[in-house]
Amino acid sequence: MFKWNYKSQIEHMADFKVAKLEFVINWIGQAGFVFKTAEDAVVCLDPYYSNCLERYEGPSARRMWYNKFKITNFHPDLVLCSHDHLDHTDPETLPLLYAHSDAIFAGPPSSVEHIRRMRMSDERLQELQMGETYRIKDLTYRAVFADHTEDSVGFIFEIEGVKVYFTGDTSLNERLYEQAGVDVLIACVNGKYGNLTMEEAIVLHKKLESKLLIPMHYDLIPSNTVDINRFVHLCEQEGIHHLIMDVEQHYYFKKTGEQIEVRQQASTF
Question: Which of 37, 110, 157, 233 maximizes the CB count within 10 A of its CB?
Fold first, then answer.
């Protein structure tokens, strides 16, 4: 079971400064991430803050831990959903973010339609077109192919000259290899419901020749997790540069030459 003994840095997002040429990634569990840039763009991916999976699937889907930050104190500019499953387009989390921020909510058609049924204004909804590039301040993003549901997507982000590929939920498919040249690969590793196994995430990392591999989609739902220590062992055997992120903690990313530098910001709150 996941445990922590430090304070969340999500609620204090506005107090953390990001220098030019850097950006922050913060993991909020499962497939949820928050990005912050030097121009103060705050982008949230697939936030799963509730426990709604248990209500549909029973005790085996009960959360192993809960987020520390108060969602009323979190104010993203953009919320992206990769597909219309409850832990990615959460019908209990998204209305709270809508009520307590001015965020735009974007994703593939099925996610946007689900969000629309939550009675959100069309002015704050954006249906993403595959391959089209969008911009928010100093961050660009585009939806790319994912092999999961009918219109699932992953995302390619470009920030300060760094290309970050978030796979979303996906199985291994040759179309994923089209994203060659990414710097940072954030990949699902749970190996269930058609998702990449640890070994397949490593295969994808090698095919793309990415510089850093970050695993996701583990250590939250008992029936849908893996032992991440085994992933670490596999990466060490292969000599793969990888990062196991602590939850709700800021990691600063910067590209120096061809290398990706990462440092963790100590919590001072």
Answer: 157
Q: What is the pLDDT of residues 129-147, one digit of tens each?
A: 998 999 999 999 999 999 9
- The CA distance from 205 to 241, in Å, is 10
Domains of the chain: 22-261 (3.60.15.10)
Query: Of how many residues is the chain composed?
Result: 269
- Given a cut of 60, whether residue 94 has pLDDT beyond it is yes
Q: Which of 45, 24, 17 is nearest to 262 (CA)?
A: 24
**What CA–CA distance (Å, rounded) separates 100 from 117?**
18
Is the per-residue pLDDT at 27 higher than 90?
Answer: yes
CA distance 222 to 225: 6
Question: For the chain, what percentages of helix, strand and coil (3-state, to nearest 5) are there?
Answer: 25, 30, 50
Which residues lie closer than 8 Å to 169 by C-beta, 6 or more apart? 31, 82, 83, 85, 88, 146, 148, 149, 152, 188, 193, 194, 195, 217
Which residues have C-beta within 8 Å of that of residue 17, sequence separation ≥ 6? Answer: none
CA end-to-end span of the chain: 25
The answer to whether 149 and 85 have CB atoms below 8 angstroms apart is: yes
- Which residues, in sequence order, are bridge partners of residue 78? 43, 104
